[in-house]
Amino acid sequence: MTPAQALSEAGYKTDKPDSVRRQHDNLQKRAPIQNRIKELKQYFDENPHLAKPIIEPDDTKPAVQKQLSAKEYLLQTLNDVGQEPKLRLQAAMALLPYEEAKIAPKGKKEDAKDVAKTATTTGKFATMDYQADFFGVMN
To answer: Distance between alpha carbon 115 and the CA centroid of its chain, in Å?
Structure first.
């Protein structure tokens, strides 16, 4: 059997003579490895109980686990006392913006309204409603 026929039987492409020669040379270089693979296959065929580890299914775990959101995962990490304190602290810092509301800063218009409102309650520009006590007028 020629190298081209052997490679063709093994499933290699044999279109180009250069690639056939190169593949044949590579296989010849790897002959000890190929022989060891054959030995191992034969050994495991004779001893099938050693071929693959037997893994028994764990029935305690549910078949489909719920996908946690990022916030839920961080909460789970934070509440897990078995985790490192550093990791729990990082989870707490990452969760802080979601747990504690941040007061939004006021804009210019809201500030101007607040200043105008305080100006009507005190000083010489106070409205009559706020000056009634000063003049002794009852509503």
So the answer is: 48
